Amino acid sequence: MSGTLRIEAVADPADCFALRRKVFIEEQGFSEADEWDALDAGAVHLLARLDGVALGTARLLDEGADGRIGRICVLAPARGTGLGAALVREGIAQLAARGHRRIVLGAQVQAMGFYEGLGFTTSGPEYDGGGVPHREMALVLPL
């Protein structure tokens, strides 16, 4: 990946929502009802830009002692470039800075290898997430 990559929390998540619509609703076929929920209002939204172009997003949530990374998506042309891994690593760093030592996520089964490569392990049974098989995964950070 060449160029200047910036990943930061944004106050206005409009670009994040546009990316989620493109990837989850238009590309993957999730319904509006499955994609949008009340958790967006209290979440931290990360936006990844390469040379100023919005290419990826993730949502960070506090769940008691756990931190959750969710709604992770990268536009198709940027997949396989390392942008997604950088986005998840930034999410982990921001959640760790908030005091979380266990980071959880709900992974589409087809993407579990990606998260395993970042240190996540399976932590729950398979479940249906909007018609797509998912599994809970967790990463325990060292003290």
Walk me through this protein's architecture.
The protein has a single domain (5-140), classed as Aminopeptidase (3-Layer(aba) Sandwich). It is of the alpha+beta class and 143 residues long. Strand 4 (66-74), helix 3 and strand 5 form a beta-alpha-beta unit. 27% of the residues lie in helices and 41% in strands. It has four helices and seven strands; from the N terminus they run βααβββαβαββ. A seven-stranded mixed sheet has the order 1-2-3-4-5-7-6, sandwiched between helices. The protein starts with a strand and ends with a strand. GO terms for molecular function: acyltransferase activity, transferring groups other than amino-acyl groups. Keywords: Acyltransferase, Transferase.
Write a compact overview of the structure shown.
The protein is 27% helix and 41% strand. The chain is α+β, with helices and mostly antiparallel strands and 143 residues long.
Helices and strands, with pairings:
Elements: E1 5-10, H1 14-27, H2 32-35, E2 44-50, E3 53-63, E4 66-74, H3 83-97, E5 102-108, H4 112-116, E6 121-129, E7 132-140
Parallel strand pairs: 4-5
Antiparallel strand pairs: 1-2, 2-3, 3-4, 5-7, 6-7
Domain N-acetyltransferase: 3-142
Protein name: GNAT family N-acetyltransferase
Keywords: Acyltransferase, Transferase
